[in-house]
Predict the 3D structure of the following.
Amino acid sequence: MRVMLLVMDEQRVLLDRLYDIVRQHCDECLIQRLTKAQQMNLGAFLASVNHQDFDRVVIFSRIKRLAPQLRVLQCVPGLIFLEHDAYQNYMPNSKYHHMYSRLYSRLPACRALVSGAVVAQRMKAEGIDALFVSKGYDEAMLHNLGRERDVPVGFLGSLKSKEYAQRKAILESLASKTGMLVARTASGEEYLQTLNRIKVFVSADIGMGEFMIKNFEALACGCVLLAWSQGEEDRLLGFKDMHNVVFYRSEVEALEKIALLQNDPALAARIAANGQAFARDHYCFARVGRDLAAAIQAPMRTWQAPGRLTQWWVKMRFGLQVPKQ
């Protein structure tokens, strides 16, 4: 099976190793890194690489760039979307509320590889071919350095997005009451070194329904992960409160559990060790990449070519050839 993987070349999160592991576990896989301009003009790009020669075309881009290109996407058999932000489909306050469902439903033969277990269940209930493949972390870059941790409580990441308003509020409040470090770092070495200074990493993915990548990265680096409970998602991903993670559902509970961990170093060390082993066994890129490759190559629904008008338009506009069924 021939696979073409189209990915963003401007991502802040470093995913090159994940892509390479996917490539290793596919029969044949060509990785193409697309600029923002290319992502917004997929018709011309797909025409230039003869997309019809591939059994699977996997696109990892932003929904706001893909949704306006429906007619082009309708002309691509074996179309798969790799998506880490589809939780926003079910966030009422997100500007992308239901946008994912609308696009995927208009492409009935497509597959969506989403990073939330509950999101996958909800999309399947809507008739979408959605599969859950979790986020993960790069074990070649992020690991426990075994050093003394001089930051009792910390958070590393962005607070700017509208979707992070609740995260920002609770983290700033916790910081004012505990002295928690709230900071951003560069990806790579600075991020690794800073994570390894933190004893308790506070995650506040409030209202998202799934866990962001930094949860797995903090676990891998030996932090105790204090995470906002995502309900059923907790169990589906294998998290166990006070065993490999510490959950909270309110600011009061977060403060209580921070105090508990600080007053019982042995408990904190045990949870951190369990969490690190759990992340290594289930959420490293080596494991996630194999799962992605399997999901990409699994049988798909039968594709049907779009109407003649759409075929004529994409051919005239982009020189895009529509394969015959």
User: Anything to note?
Assistant: The mean pLDDT is 95. Residues 73 and 79 are 8 Å apart (CA to CA). The chain has two domains: 2-136+286-318, 151-283. The first helix runs from residue 16 to 24.
